[in-house]
Amino acid sequence: MSDRYAAIQAHHGRFPVRLMCELLEVSPSGYYDAMARQRASPTARAVADEGLLVNVLAAYRRSRGRYGAPRVHRELGGQGIAVARKRVARLMREDGLMGRRRRKFIRTTDSDHTDPIAPNFLGRRFSITDHPVLDRA
User: Fold this and answer.
1) Is 5 exposed, middle or buried (0-12, 13-18, 19+ CB in 10 A)?
2) Cα–Cα distance, 34 to 90 (Å, whole number)
3) In terms of CB atoms within 10 Å, which end of the chain has fewer, N or C?
């Protein structure tokens, strides 16, 4: 329900509905339709969506939040659940589920360079007793 209809409903007894609808620039029939939809029982599709959302959440959690709608859809198909990918995407979007993106690989070492290599003064000749910090004391 929109904020405008909620405001009208909150002040329903104090002010005339027609006046509030006029001030909030909504039609009275729209307000009454919204109230009727709110009182009505959920549709068969809404009930089916709730059941499907349980399966979508399970597949999403098994992937540790990495799968987006296409992969969740593929996994549900593998389990024998026939559902459209766009429906899975809508359910995930409405529930705030998004697949985590893979981090971009960044190479931090460039071994193929032309710069001079630093000389190896130690030549792997070191031990705890040769540590300069310990020799100062």
Assistant:
1) buried
2) 22
3) C
Element (H, E) at 79: none
Which position has the token pair 């032309």? 114
pTM for the model: 0.54
- Could you tell me the two tokens for 120? 């190896």
CA dist 88 and 135 (Å) reads 67
- What are 58-99's pLDDT values in tens digits? 999 999 999 999 999 999 999 999 999 999 999 999 999 998
End-to-end CA distance of the chain: 77
Instruction: State pLDDT tens for residues 17-56.
Output: 899 989 899 999 998 998 888 888 888 999 999 999 999 9
How many residues are listed for the chain in this entry? 137
